[in-house]
Amino acid sequence: MNWSTTGFIAQGGEEEEDNQLISLELPDATKKEIDFTDSSFFTTPNRHLPTPAEVRAISKDAYKSYKVTPVVFENVNLIVKFGTDVTIVEAVNLWMIKKAFQNEVPVPELFGWRVDDEGYVFMYMELIKGLTLHECRDSLNTMQKRAITDQLSQIMGNLRRLKQDPSDPFIGSINRQHLLDRTFEFKPKTGPIPSVKEFIDWFALLPQILASYRYDDPDRCFLPDTGEIKFTHADLHKRNIIVSSFDPVQMVIVDWEQSGWYPDYWEYCKACRTCYKGDEWHTDFVGEFLEPQEDLYHVFMDYCFVMGSFF
């Protein structure tokens, strides 16, 4: 898979010899307006995406710039996510995953994006109908819970088949930009970073940088300097998993705004971080669809606490 540099994706079996190199040129993230005319939205003749002005006119809180409620156009199966905190990188993430995996990693289809004169990004995508896992969790029976963990395990296994060019590794956003994980929100921007060790060195040093003094770090030795770099959702909260069908169970994963290339254990740490200690999501779900990394998770959380990162 090619994103200006060369990457790889396993298309086929799980064995290394079944992997197939494919090429995929990412959309130009510098453009302020793109329509994906090959998407399902444009199969209807003469259909146009609503303008930013039309979206704002319908929005109930368009006066906000951050965490604006998305606007739904149900008659055309469209939802528009917009605001100054929305990024084109998230749109590119969605586009790439849909192109690379089709329904093997179910995500909303991207129809296009706009950037207006005020710097608001408007991301036009498929409306997914259903309940979030957070909304329906108390009504799930044992069989449905098992079906959900099984399907999430398969989805995550598919996503983690995505590989970088081993000669050009990096940790950062898909288009080789700075890290967008909210763990680092309000922290100095950084990235891309060329290795796991350099990333972990930076991560472990952040509390000292923010405190403006240095000390011997007793926990740094517990964070591995090596390991695979995997494409990571980075926010597998129950609210970001929509159950679109219960019989059979079918799900769609949304909100890829924090996604990027991270150490292979990052997904587990971030998924556990979305809930309180002892929550069913942590104890009964996450460890079933991701490889448990409990010791690393506790070290990760210690660093987050010290640096005042609560997202």
Automatic annotation (TrEMBL):
Sorted UniProt keywords: Transferase
Molecular function GO labels: transferase activity
InterPro entries: AGP_Transferase, Aminoglycoside_PTrfase, Kinase-like_dom_sf
Keyword Transferase included in the entry's annotation: yes
Record's keyword annotation contains Kinase: no
Residue ranges occupied by any Aminoglycoside phosphotransferase domain in the UniProt entry: 104-298
Protein name as it appears in the record: Phosphotransferase enzyme family protein
